[in-house]
Fold these 3 entries.
Entry 1:
Amino acid sequence: MESPLKYFARLTDPRIERNREHRLEEILLIAIAAVLSGAESWNDIADYGESKREWLKTFLTLPGGIPSHDTFNRVFAALDPEEFERGFAAWVAAIAKLTAGEVVAIDGKTLCGTRQVGKKQLVHLVSAWAGTNNLVLGQRKVDEKSNEITAIPKLLAALELSGTVVTIDAMGCQREIAAKIVDKKADYILAVKENQQRLLDDIKDSFKMLAADAVAEQIDCGHGRVETRRCSVVGDLTLLDKPGDWKGLRSLVRIEAERYHKTTGKTEQETRYYISSLAPEAERINSLVRQHWGIENKLHWVLDVAFGEDHSRKRAGNAAQNFSLINRVALNLLKKETTLKRGVKGKRLKAAWDHPYLLKLLGV
């Protein structure tokens, strides 16, 4: 595994030079090592550093000893998050081998514990998840007075997406975003809801008045339920208002989902609509749409349950955004290490008590 640390080597140190008791690269390494070992706060990281002081001294200089929790907080609160994220994206580009047709799911996540006193706004991040590689590709923060529509293009610009299929929920169904994806030599599947009411109505009319080019059905059983997803696709765009405004558009998609819950006997039904730059191939599109939910199950859920991200109370400056990136560095390192057949929790436990394994994860 290639170490992420060298990709952060050129980060601008936000501290005044005369006040630097600790080297920035060593602060980063201790933080990542601590999070790999189970730390969830600045206090945890500082305590980890103190408990591992003698071992850390075997390969770090530690000119000012182990930084305090206040030092970790101040440094990461002041660190430029965009610069930090660029380093992260460069590292991921070096370790990820995106395959043709791989789903890159983009979705937002709110850090629920980040509301500052006197403010209503919570930190909201948009992340990209590569399903086949099982990796976070990048993240961007949504500006306080904006929404995901402005953050998604910035995230797309930072990623290498050639040959992939980008899937985004309804917030990302924008002409500019579709064009950006095509310009990156990728395809898209974008959910369509009431925020694009005219487009949604035209798609519904298309399925009422035109014959589907292809239909495919998938049935999944698990977690006490049976889910049937019927995908219909139409390649005729004549009933759309100005279809040429959507760059690369080739298919309209309808997915009719039915979930039967074995324990209650209840059945739920839902119909969802999408637009896509892919050819009208129902079986393939049905599978790709299903893969989008990997970002919820394999990224957001893991960050909340295994890393305690939703309970984070980091509020100063850029602390929450930068700590979230440390979590994603750690998650990628754990996902890419495949010799130990354990889940994220098991690997973090082993990292906490097995120094050679931790160094293997870190790539140092």
Entry 2:
Amino acid sequence: MPYWGLFLGIFFLLIVLVIRKKEKLRRFSFALYVLAALSFAFQYPAYITVWGSFETKRLIVPLLQIIMFGMGTTMGLKDFKGVIEMPKGILIGLICQFTVMPLVGVGLAYSFALPSEIAAGIILIGSCPGGLASNVMAYLARANIALSISLTTVATLISPFLTPFLMQFLSGTLVPINTADMMISILKMVILPVVLGLFFNQLFKRQITFLLPILPKVSMAAILLIIVIITANGRDALLSVGILLILAAVIHNLAGYFIGYWSCKLLRLPEADCRTIAFEVGMQNGGLASGIAVEMGRISTLGLASVIFGPWMNISGSTLALWWKEKTDQSKS
């Protein structure tokens, strides 16, 4: 059927209209928007990859910078105070995040015998810090929001050093890695806009109050556009390894939740902290992985894992968060 992508996209949008009326299901709206956009991008990539003589993949880095700037505007000095107040949770979270996910990624990359650059993309996802979505899920799950924000902040700030090192060490045989170039790219894509957003928030906090409700929506729109562009560029590769890549992404993500949560349980952290670190370990910054893939000139292969990981991460994270929320509410009643 020549118009399946259009019909499927409309179908997902209609589901959004239905579930937005139900509070418990409303959190799945963004994932459905992603699926709707992916349906169109998968069938009509020519309309997305190039606009006239402009290659849309050049938009990915600026879009990521907008997302990170938005993250910076939501941050304040209180977020860094959390590092001092919760050192044990921060340390455990960072160790899990930058060991569990990269190593699980390596295991999956070699187990599924994927093409080298696509396999390296799985390791890249695992080597990136957590994203903003983990903070939202921590809020929904009645977890430790202060710990979540502090952990995301610290992981993001040290990612220019750890992510290139991990990629060189774990995937250097799969794809050429220039550690210095990757470090500079992450500084440009993440640290610079976050710092600018932080200063913007501190200097103009009262003047930009009206922007605060808008920025999350702008960030979500930017994430959606990044996923669509990568899907269109990597459509042919996805057709050949799609099922395996989906399976790898699901296992990767669930392993992060499981190991993150139970590691904290074994170390006797409070339940709220265990939930928080589960989200921080299991949910990675797919946008950063996409930006790195663009900077390396391998968006159609290295960037594919983030296309699968992003939508699935939102679906699984929302489901787990709502389950934990209901569990907490029932225990209080």
Entry 3:
Amino acid sequence: MTRTQTAIPCAILRGGTSRGVYFRRQDLPGDARLRDRILLQVMGGPDPLQIDGIGGGHPLTNKVAIVGPSARDDADVDYLFLQVKPEESRVSDVQNCGNILAGVGPFAIEAGLVTAGSPHTRVRVYMVNSGSLCELTVETPDGAVNYAGETTIDGVPGSAAAIVCDFLDVAGSACGDLLPTGNTTDTIDGVQVTCIDNGMPVVLLRAADFAISGYESPDELDANDDLKARLEALRCKVGPLMNLDDVAGLSVPKMCLVAEPRHGGSLSTRTFIPHVCHRSVGVLGAVTVATACLLPGSVANHIAVVPDERDPTLAIEHPAGSMSVRLVTDQSVEGKFRIVKAGVIRTARMLLRGDVFVWST
């Protein structure tokens, strides 16, 4: 039988501390099953090296953004994030990705989905996964995307142009509420946890409760099979309590071990995504952790160092450095704590633009 290949236009961008393949929505099938089969081919697998695809053999490099014009009055483009899991022959749309989001603005401009202004272009993005909005500010001097600059982010070598990401009211994006269990803390298998979702479902746990410091390297934690087994058991028990049902095959919630800051930040973190320790920290994960730092009684609150300000900026420490999150709060309703805006600075870079080839189906 003769097999033919089909060319699909795409781009590969580094977004924040992740790398993804970006597609225009019109260039992929509307049928989700066919689309997912194509994406599994694009990334390659199930072999760990992904020799027959363009994935990078790690969750942070098996990511996809699908971007198209938005029908909403309050957004310029729609962004669907997909996490490709070649080892399971599965594609998940359960969560957002704030790092890949950073590349959506430049991609939308480069792909002709948004008209650039000068010296900056604001791109309002509707995040399909969570039904929430983010406003990206992209440097576009002379009407073209500028990737070069002096902004550095921990976990990425060199510097690049800043992209400001302002998340707008993302509480309960996946779980339906900021505190989906209804409690600031819960006790599961004798371990006190805080279950929270301000853009990313996260379970916060004190590292000390697992007889570790919380400052170990990702490689050390990945090699700790007993720790990973305990975290997975907890994750599966807490999933239904967070309105996520059976999470055994899902990439959320993320399990985040916290400890006192060591490098002048607000809190030290080690995050599992969910079975591999993150080399840094996810953008929306950092937003959610920063939010927990402000919540009285949370697992993070009593060990976090929080600036005495109305709308503080918190530095969330991670294995590669730290990420700063500025939280704008609304406490106008008595007894109700609400984050109305969370701002982070990311960078992105176009790495490749062209066609990816897949076997015709």
